[in-house]
Design brief:
The protein is mainly beta and 324 residues long. The chain is built from two helices and 18 strands. The strands form four sheets. It has an eight-stranded antiparallel β-sheet, covered by helices on one side. A four-stranded antiparallel β-sheet has the order 1-2-3-4, with no helix packed on it. It has a four-stranded antiparallel β-sheet with strand order 5-11-16-15, with no helix packed on it. The longest helix has 13 residues. The radius of gyration is 24 Å and the shape is globular.
């Protein structure tokens, strides 16, 4: 009976094909009235993102739906002599690089990176006193529509003592279109064998740096309070963006600060060189007791076009409703 059922199914399937070719033949010509079959896009179970590991780096690649091919989306640098960072970061089509590494005006800035001034009195942001360095990759995960990894970072004082650990959990979500995609970034700080004191400063924590053209600076900023450009500087807000033209199109990166973060809403660094930073140390001095942790959740929206306050507010509301 089982053999008969299989045979009948095979005959039924073959009735939809002309030219006397088997149903599995990709050149088969469907007869009129046959059900449509989508052969142009990836199946739901096929991956749309993947990680390719290179020498001291992770390369994030995305499958572009039309036409079907893989593009470079971002690179995560893991050099043990440096702080880890994301660069280059590209738009959802893979064609435009949206970040800058070691700009001439601020050579300590690296695409998307972390850092602090005044950690127990020393400057780690500018890499001239204390140092951050990548220790190891703790893990990485891949599913069809997202990839993620955790990286361990140490803050080394001038005397060589490791005073602070940082874990970066980075999650890329597959682009739904060629216009936008989302990155989740969790920043975990853990004091080691002594209390860690953070002094108030105008920058500190997660930062995003876009390229800057000194002769024709064209960056714009918009925050959740409706403030624009330099008016955003050091103002408290739930989110802030940076946009600028690349060729004939405008591209932007918005950073959302989760409502569960200890300092929400933070003050922001938003400068004319294209940097935005939800500043953990903007509101005053703070401390992390030894062996204690503090966790901060962020979402980055990478997009093409000029975003409105209403559009970004809707994106923030979606992020804020998610439990960290």
């Amino acid at each position: 009976m089982k053999i008969c059922v299989v045979a009948l199914l095979s005959i039924a399937l073959s009735l939809f094909a002309a030219d006397d070719k088997p149903p599995a033949d990709t050149t088969v010509r469907p007869i009129p009235g046959a059900p449509a079959v989508n052969t142009s896009g990836a199946r739901a179970s096929e991956p749309r993102l993947k990680i390719e590991r290179g020498s001291q780096r992770l390369n994030v690649r995305a499958r572009v739906p039309t036409p079907q091919h893989w593009i470079d989306l971002a690179t995560f640098i893991m050099d043990p002599q440096l702080r880890p960072y994301l660069h280059p970061l590209r738009d959802a089509s893979g064609r435009v690089v949206l970040t800058e590494d070691r700009p001439e005006d601020h050579p300590w800035q690296h695409g998307i990176f972390t850092g602090f001034h005044r950690v127990n009195g020393f400057n780690y942001w500018k890499e001239d006193q204390g140092k951050q360095h990548f220790v190891r990759l703790l893990d990485s995960r891949e599913t069809p529509d997202r990839v993620s990894w955790r990286a361990l970072v140490e803050y080394i004082a001038p005397d060589g003592t490791a005073v602070l650990e940082e874990e970066n959990t980075v999650t890329f979500h597959a682009p739904q279109t060629v216009d936008a995609y989302v990155i989740d970034f969790d920043l975990l700080l853990r004091a080691k064998d002594q209390d860690v004191n953070f002094g108030k400063f105008f920058v500190g924590g997660l930062a995003v740096r876009m390229p800057w053209d000194k002769s024709n600076s064209r960056h714009t900023h918009l925050n959740s309070e409706g403030l624009r450009d330099r008016a955003c500087e050091q103002q408290r807000a739930a989110w802030c963006n940076v946009e600028r033209p690349f060729g004939e199109d405008i591209y932007g990166i918005a950073v959302f600060d989760h409502p569960s973060n200890p300092n929400h809403p933070p003050g922001w660094r938003a400068d004319e060189q294209g940097l935005i930073n939800p500043n953990i140390s903007a509101l005053g001095d703070w401390s992390l007791p030894k062996k204690q942790e503090r966790l901060f959740h962020y979402r980055l929206l990478v997009y093409r076009g000029s975003a409105t306050r209403e559009q970004l507010a809707a994106r923030f509301a979606e992020f804020g409703a998610q439990r960290p």
